[in-house]
Each structure stands twice: as structure tokens, then as C-alpha cells.
Design brief:
- This protein is an alpha/beta fold.
- It has one domain (about 5-160): Rossmann fold (3-Layer(aba) Sandwich), CATH 3.40.50.
- Helices cover about 45% and strands about 20% of the residues.
- The chain has helices at about 15-30, 50-60, 75-80, 95-110, 130-135, 150-160, and strands at about 5-10, 30-40, 65-70, 85-90, 115-120.
- It has a 3-stranded parallel beta sheet with strand order 1-2-3, with helices on both faces.
- Helix 4 links the parallel strand 4 (about 85-90) and strand 5 (about 115-120).
- The relative contact order is 0.20.
- The structure holds adenosine-5'-diphosphate (ADP).
- Adenosine-5'-diphosphate binds near residues 89, 91, 95 and 127.
């Protein structure tokens, strides 16, 4: 499909779960815009620039990916960029309620906008950025949780 889709998230930092969704979306669609949320009310562990750089490195082999940052409402950002499809990963039932509400809210704000869910890979259904931050900052092994090419950088940063 030649369609452009958007994969939004905090990516604080990127995990193998994120990379799995981005990779699968890149095979299904013409272009994938990976959009890093800049949330002024929350202080992320990794700066916007760091999150973008880590994503860039992790997604190196994928040539139909664009990594951007955005502030404010995703529905408005999509309208502004002419993107009509959001692709999200769904890990467990616990993700469902929030994601379902967000999908409906986004559609109310921008009726052209569809949300598609990809089921998380069985190896990463348990995985979240917050888990990576917690384990990594306490010196635990995160090599099974983050892309190998950015592992050392994430570890160094979390141990600071
Ligand atoms: P996190 O919960 O890890 O902080 P983000 O807000 O950065 O996640 O998530 C961005 C997108 O990636 C969301 O659609 C989320 O459902 C998806 N995602 C996050 N972790 C995983 C995972 N382990 N497997 C599949 N999708 C995931």
C-alpha cells in the first residue's frame, strides 16, 4: 500500500516492542511517520533529541520511515500533515481500554482519522519503556528489551 501512516508515542526510550510495530507497519504501508510526543506537562527521561536519535539508529535499515516530533493534539498534527491512519501496538487487555478511548476521541476530533492496531509480538507483550528505565537505572540487564545498536547508549544514559 502506498499510504502514509503515523506511529505515535513517547519512545522514552525506544524498545524492541516499538521497533517490532514500526518494522511491521513499514512492510504494510508506503511510508511510516514515527512521531515522538513532546509533552510539556511531563518531563521525559530522554530528551526529545535523544529519543529521535535513538529511534533513527534503531530504525536504520528501514528506508520508508520518517522520524519527527510533535506537540499538542495528534489529531490536529495528522490533519496538518494530511495523514489519515494511526498505527498502534496493542500489548494486552490493559492497553485496550485506553487505546479504544483514544481512537474514538481522535476520530471525534478528526473524522477522517482511522486507528489500526497491530497485536504485539508474543516476546514483547510485557515490555514498556518504563520497565526499561526502571531495570536499566538499577543496573539490570536490558539487552533483551532494547535494540542491540542502541543498547549501550541507553544503559550509559540510565546509569548517569
Ligand atoms: P510505552 O508504554 O512503552 O511508554 P509509548 O507511549 O512510547 O509506550 O508507545 C508508543 C506505541 O507503541 C503505542 O502504540 C504502544 O501501544 C506501542 N507499544 C509500546 N510498547 C509496545 C510493545 N512492547 N509491543 C508492541 N507495541 C508497543
Amino acid at each position: 500500500m502506498s499510504q502514509t501512516v503515523i506511529c505515535p508515542g513517547s519512545f522514552d526510550p525506544v524498545t524492541l516492542g516499538h521497533l517490532d510495530i514500526i518494522t511491521r507497519a513499514s512492510r504494510m504501508f508506503g511510508k511510516v511517520v514515527v512521531a515522538v510526543l513532546v509533552n510539556s506537562s511531563k518531563t521525559p527521561t530522554f530528551s526529545t533529541e535523544e529519543r529521535i536519535e535513538l529511534l533513527r539508529e534503531a530504525a536504520q535499515g528501514l528506508d520508508n520511515i520518517e522520524i519527527v516530533s510533535f506537540e499538542g493534539l495528534l489529531a490536529e498534527y495528522c490533519k496538518k500533515c494530511g495523514i489519515g491512519t494511526i498505527v498502534k501496538g496493542l500489548r494486552a487487555v490493559s492497553d485496550f481500554e485506553y487505546e479504544f478511548q483514544m481512537a474514538i476521541a481522535n476520530k471525534k476530533l478528526n473524522p477522517e482519522l482511522e486507528t489500526i492496531f497491530l497485536t504485539a509480538d508474543s516476546d514483547s507483550t510485557f515490555l514498556s519503556s518504563s520497565m526499561v528505565r526502571e531495570i536499566g537505572s538499577m543496573g539490570g540487564d536490558i539487552s533483551n528489551f532494547v535494540p542491540a545498536c542502541v543498547h549501550d547508549r541507553i544503559v550509559r544514559r540510565l546509569r548517569k
